Amino acid sequence: MSSERTYHHGDLRRAVLTAALDVIAADGPDALSLRDLARRAGVSHAAPAHHFKDRTGLLTAVAAEGYALFADALAAAPDLQERGVAYVRFAAAHPAHFQVMFRPELHRADDPALLAAKARATEALRAGVGGLPGAVEDDARLTGVAAWSLAHGFATLLLSGNLTDALEGRTPEEAFRTAAGTAFGPARPGS
Fold first, then answer.
1. What is the pLDDT of residues 46-87, one digit of tens each?
2. Is 73 exposed, middle or buried (0-12, 13-18, 19+ CB in 10 A)?
């Protein structure tokens, strides 16, 4: 009789990613351990390495998945201000992805899936800026950086619990629209 344990796991890759997202959301990416994730998934400690190779590979997969979801959320927004709202909404709905995506020291920058998803997200962000009336190329790039800074800063403050008083009973989306209106002026039809 063999002492090897056999198991069948329907989708080990997804199970490990889901467990990783739970750990990251609760305790941050620094708390992540492949051995712990294997235990949570009920598989051998070596099993996650078959899909991700190592911790960095797993975090790269989290970032790539996050950027793909992020690109979809941004592309669905009709204008720059609503892309900012989508940015904030994404961060609130996907805090674990958000924490990993913007920490390049956690993942492999040359990963093809990550690069493709990141490029899609960047294009979706830039598309919102390009539609601003009167925007010239240099100004559009700086406007994009300013809009990104506002949305990213707002989302980061929201996730860290630093906006509770500032929300004053408003949803994060409503508060962001007000902040964006203050910074960039009210949204214009077709912008």
1. 888 888 999 999 999 999 999 999 999 999 999 888 999 999
2. buried
